[in-house]
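Sequence in, structure out.
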Amino acid sequence: MRRGPGRRVLLTSTAVRASFVILVFLFVLVPQLGDLTSPSPAAPPPRLTGDGVSPYINTTFPANAQFDLPVAVRIRVDFSEPMNTTSVNWTLTGWRNATGTWSDLNTTLELTATRPFRDCTGYRVNVTGRDADDNLTLVAGPVPNPWWFRTACINPFIVSTDPADRSIDAPLDGPINVTFSEPMNETGVEWEFAIGINLTAAWNRTREVLSLTPEVPLPPCRVLWFTIVSAIDDQRLPLVPGPVPTTWSWFSYCPNPFINVTKPPTAAHDVPMNATIVVAFSRPMGTATVNWSVQPAIDLTPDWSPGDTLLTLRHAANFSENTLYVLEITAGNDTGGLPLVPGPVPNPWDFVTLGINPFIVSTDPADGAVGVSQVSAITVTFSEPMNVGFIAWWITPSISFSSWPSGNATIITLTPTVPFRECTRYTVEILAGFDLQGLPLVPGPVPNPWSFLTYCPLGAPRGLTVTKLAPTSVLLSWQAVTGATGYKVYESQSRFAAWPAGWALLTPTPIAPTQYTHSGALVDPLTHYYIVRATDGVQDGPNSTMGVKTALTFGYAAANTNVAWFSLPFVSQYRRASDIANELGSTNIDVIGKWVPARQTSIVYYYARGGWRGTDFTIAAGDGLYLGVKRPFTWNVTGTDLNVTLSFARNPPPKANVNWISVPNTGVYFRASDISTALGSSRITEVGLWNAATQTVTRWYWSGTAWTGTDFMIAPGAGVYLIIASSFPWTPTLITPAVP
């Protein structure tokens, strides 16, 4: 190794401070710089033509004794009044020239140096001149004139080198050129050249470019290293790192072929597993002469670019992840027959492929799953094969599994030995795991831990009520269902409509409250049937009790008695006769009657002499009821039905056995024959329907051998009677089982 003739110079902080003190002393104290405050002119002022006040300097930039200013700083002088610009002169001690620009009505002067100031240097400024109105001479003001400032100290650095770092085929006899950012101290630069060749140093006129000429030609086909060990500029500031390195290398001219570039480069990490291998040669190669090797072995297919200087090695199979590969171009000649020699990049070289941590791709059940079967298995799919023996997991509530897979697997399945508990939220977590390269499990696109809810059967909404919500709506209310996230309300104008196709969903989006208002349904002339179901977003529960709103129409004829038998839902708002009287009023009715089968007569609650009189009887499910109508009207009735057992007792002779009843509005009975079929001729011999318009009955009766008469339809609210042949209990069947 040869060292350059430059001498090492050690600049301590004490030496720098001493230099600075001397510099300040020179500018502030040395008499040759002049007094920093200009005296008032000795000559008397000329005759005044303006305000008679002499001009002075208000402010300066830089200010007096200001430090660390940029080398491109502009000097600004603000005068107390407009100046005679042709009379104003300035001097910058230590610099040759500056141009002036006036502004603000000739009260501001800006001085721009013709080239940047030197760094780490003090400058003295002096301005003279006269004002514009009185031609009075500039006098001392609030700021010094002359004044001084100091530029910032900028350490030198290397701007460029020739040969440049990592250049190729550099001349063997050319100089080594180093360009610095500023003039340097010639004796303060020291270098090292890593071969035993003497270099002759020469500087350009400004001492910014150092040229080092070798005494003999440089060796060919060599990587040559050069270092600027230390250097100081002419202010004795030390060299600092810059845009190019202080130690660099180049590859000297070589007639033989060599490798310029490899991709991936040597020692590269995280190389993609599908990356191709690219080798760039300095000369066109005889492609048939080029051989290579790779460890671990993988099949490589060559692909030469036009000109045969660029070889691309492709592989159909991916590299193994997180693996060290070593490649070497083992032989090759250029097209002229010269053999491959070592070049500026290593051959052989190595790289490490990307290590991809494993993660969970999916889980079954997925996070947030509900309604999971109690006999489901838990399946976890990973992004790559895992070392199953190093997978740790946890589940709560605790449950045992029949087996755990062994070996290597991408998918693991855990089968519980007993069913999961019903309606239970389980949380599972893969605590740790490693792939076959030993890389640990990391978070992926699905949650870990994750939770799921096992099957949780929903019950039917209990206690459905259908009531009037004045003035125009129907209100449905029910009890909350455990596990439900919402409720669906269905409506149909026929209780026999097919389920669910014949039913309209009033709540396309399930509702959370346990009540629903059917607006306008109270006052329309239609019959509405209602069913409510609970949902948890995955499944729907069974049907509620069926509710009903129906409109009962009553006519009036002055020529007849105007008795109207009717049926009420088994559960309604009417508990006593007075409840009906209060709602319908004495303008519409004057009698409310209830049939008493044991007496074969009725009890009445009637209006007379300005008030309701008689027996305010109770109303039970199935009671036969009638009204005494005074004028036509419509009565909107709401309610539900229950599974109620009605008792029928046969009266001994000579009493008759007529039993007026209320038929459930939501029952299965569409015609008279439906009732006769359900009860049979051994229990009843006649089913009758009251016709309020004619004040007569329509009969369906047993002839002794068959049912005959009129098999009439049973409308909601119809007045129906039975003639019984024996005592028996009867629980009318409802279309939808009641859920009280």
